[in-house]
Amino acid sequence: MTDLTNAVAQLSSQALAEGGSLSAVEISVLMDNLPVGVALVDDAFTVRIFNRKARQLLDFPDSLFASRMPTLRELFLFNAQRGEYGDGDPEVHADALVERSRKREPHQFERDRPDGSVLDIRGEPLPGGGFVTIWTDITARKRAEREAEARARQLDLVMNKVPGKLSFFDADLRCVYSNQRELVFGGVATGEEGKTLRELVGDVVFPEIEGHFRRTLNGESTAYHRQFTRPDGSVGYLQVSSAPHRAPNGDVIGVFTIGQDVTELMQTEEALKQRNAELEAANAALATTHQHLVQTEKLASIGQLAAGVAHEINNPVGFVSANLSTLGGYVGKLLALAEVSERSLREVLPAGSPALVAFEAACADADLDFVRDDIVALLDESRDGLDRVRRIVQDLRDFSRAGGNDQWQMASLEAGLNATANIALTDMKHRVTVSREYGDIPEVECLPSQLNQVFLNLIVNAGHAITDTGTISLRTGMSEDAAEVWVEVADSGCGIPAENLTRLFDPFFTTKPVGQGTGLGLALSYGIVEKHGGRIEVRSTVGEGTTFRVSIPRERPTPD
């Protein structure tokens, strides 16, 4: 009982006692001025006091107390008749309440009255007999409590609609609040407030996430992703974000967290990444195809140009060769004539004669003996030069065979390899030794100009791999079942690191400095060999060299 209740009880005991220090009138005045309602019943259950505040709180009319103090049953009956105790016979309600009062049991409860007020009702038996009842108006407090409860319910309603698991942990990582969402980070269901984070998530998960919570307690907002088991048993992805909760002085006193099931989002992102990868691959393939077409056009142009140049060069080479042959005949005759003339003069003219002396002086001045030997050598060198021009022209024609028209035909890969090597090695012949080990392979049905482009790429790359001096080996052979032939281009260069071997044929991959390689040569070569139904393989050892082998079936592959 409160101090006010104790004071009322003391006054009530004195009102019932004989010879108290206060008169009945004084006690009645004191009671009427109390801020609470008071009713005093003696041991005979006669109402002795029913103060003014009690009448106001219970809305009893003054007429009920005009002539005399009503009995306890009359008060109960009045309330029952106006529906204070609900439905039923008022007489029955009044009798039941009187019987309950006779038990003189202490009680306390709250009552909502029809007018909207709320009363706190306390009943206490007095030591000297009798009973005191106190009514306190708690309407304002109850309204505030109910409004607070309504706000809390509304807040819970809002929190429970948030698409995620909201929780609040104190500085000891003990759960203080949690909304009613599915468990998405392994803990904190409704009704589990008060448990520690470790108790909620278990010993397996706790070490994985504790660091994030500790960092938040140090004032840092954090976020992490992890896999978790969804309520339906499937594997999902979880995102948990946390923020520090600070006291007015700035100290961190807890952690706010929100956990969200981002499985669908992650799957969407993964699908987008996959789609982007597919688009990038398609773009790369398109770029490769474009480069391939450009390269093919270049090859066609080179082939047509080479065929035209070869034709144009062949004409002057032909008549120069013919003239040189005729000139050789003329020079032979002139040399023979000079020899006969000299011999005849020496036979006819005596030694020391002026004519013979003049002839010998003329021969010495013309250095006839040197000219006679050198002119033959000059003619031989000229013929050799013309032969070399013929071979170069023939190599151009062989390299650009069919003018780059991409017509399938029977062709010798060895002839194409030879022609390509003669062209490709021109600018590196002073530092590279070429070894040819041919297996006299049969002709194959192919696109000769395109395979020559493959050989050109391989030979040029082999030359680039040799820093100073070295050897390039060109080899050919045939498979055991004679179904395909192969061409190898090997070098004694720097070799290729193992981590790069799997990327050699990727478009735009190159280890050459910027401006010295496009990264398309081997990619295009791979495509050409694949078009022929063949394969291209590589073996390499760093510091020792690299070998590329191109295998081509002897018959044209059947189109899909």
As a whole number of angstroms, the C-alpha radius of gyration is 58 Å
Total number of helices: 14
Shape designation: rod-shaped
Task: Give the terminus-to-terminus CA distance.
Answer: 99 Å
Assembly state (oligomeric): single chain
User: What is the mean predicted local confidence, pLDDT?
Assistant: 80
What is the total tally of β strands? 17
Overview of this structure, please?
Helices cover 49% and strands 21% of the residues. It is an alpha+beta fold and 560 residues long. It is rod-shaped and about 195 Å long. It has a 5-stranded antiparallel β-sheet with strand order 2-1-5-4-3. It is built from 14 helices and 17 strands. It has helices at residues 3-16, 24-32, 52-58, 72-81, 90-102, 139-161, 197-217, 263-348, 354-366, 368-399, 413-424, 448-465, 498-501, 521-531, and strands at residues 37-41, 47-50, 107-112, 118-125, 131-137, 165-170, 175-178, 222-229, 235-246, 252-261, 409-411, 432-437, 444-446, 470-478, 484-491, 535-541, 545-553.
Keyphrases for this structure?
17 strands, 21% strand, rod-shaped, 560 residues, 5-stranded antiparallel β-sheet
Task: Describe the secondary-structure layout.
Blueprint: H1 3-16, H2 24-32, E1 37-41, E2 47-50, H3 52-58, H4 72-81, H5 90-102, E3 107-112, E4 118-125, E5 131-137, H6 139-161, E6 165-170, E7 175-178, H7 197-217, E8 222-229, E9 235-246, E10 252-261, H8 263-348, H9 354-366, H10 368-399, E11 409-411, H11 413-424, E12 432-437, E13 444-446, H12 448-465, E14 470-478, E15 484-491, H13 498-501, H14 521-531, E16 535-541, E17 545-553
